[in-house]
Amino acid sequence: MPGRIFALANQKGGVGKTTTAVNLAACLAEAGERTLVVDLDPQANATSGLGERANGTSSGDLLDGAELWRTVRRTRFANLDLVPAKPELAGLAVELARHAGGETYLAESLAGARDEYSFVFIDCPPSLGPLTVSALAAADQVIVPIQCEYYALEGLTQLLDSIERLRARLNPRLSVAGMILTMADGRTRLAAEVAGEVRRHFGDLVFDAVVPRSVRLAEAPSHGLPITAYDPTSAGADAYYRVAGELVDRLRGASSARESLVHAGR
Fold this sequence. Notes:
The protein has helices spanning 17-30, 45-49, 59-62, 68-71, 89-98, 105-109, 113-116, 130-138, 156-169, 189-202, 215-219, 227-230, 235-252, 255-262, and strands at residues 4-8, 35-39, 73-74, 80-83, 119-123, 141-147, 175-184, 206-212. The radius of gyration is 17 Å and the shape is globular. It has an eight-stranded mixed sheet with strand order 3-4-2-5-1-6-7-8, with helices on both faces. The longest helix has 18 residues, at 235-252. Strand 6 (141-147), helix 9 and strand 7 (175-184) form a beta-alpha-beta unit. The protein has 14 helices and eight strands. The protein has one domain (4-262): P-loop containing nucleotide triphosphate hydrolases (Rossmann fold, 3-Layer(aba) Sandwich). The protein is α/β, with parallel strands linked by helices.
């Protein structure tokens, strides 16, 4: 089947967008899927989280019409490529908003990515500004990480409304792939209450797998490593193997793929 492009989006910051983009990509790459991370956040955390620096071309060049192959960088992890970000991306976002049709530039640059990669993950900034709109215009589906804290649902209605408006105006194929509960502290009642509330609101859209609050997950980016390389036997790695397997199941209906991913790091 053709590759899929996913935008990791939530206008709230600190909910695990970058952690999810990097680690989902790493899990799928480890399972043999050609995978690409496009860092579209001026903070460039996905770039540093994969041990890279944006010297040379970057995702900003994609917004300026560059061909994808000119911006892609191979990481040290098999099957996992990256389009890095630079802080200058913030200024480009302002320029993008001034151009008629500027929100479709990224979609045009990524059009051939589905032929090269099974999975493309676009890490969006924590806003619904021009960069996130560009990602949603380019994506087939949206993955929404939701932190297991109070106010978890805050802003989600606005995000879903924005997705609907963008689907009608720019990208009719866009849909929500699912919502991933992140930073869950299993020792507290709060995490269970928030998870229950999110599942009541969104039902089957919510992934079964829950990502725990984890010191190892927090440490991994400072070493420039996904959790699959930093501590593949940790609870955080196990959670992302399960999320990755569930994503594959949702796309392909292949339960065997989930089993191979769940055990890939053991």
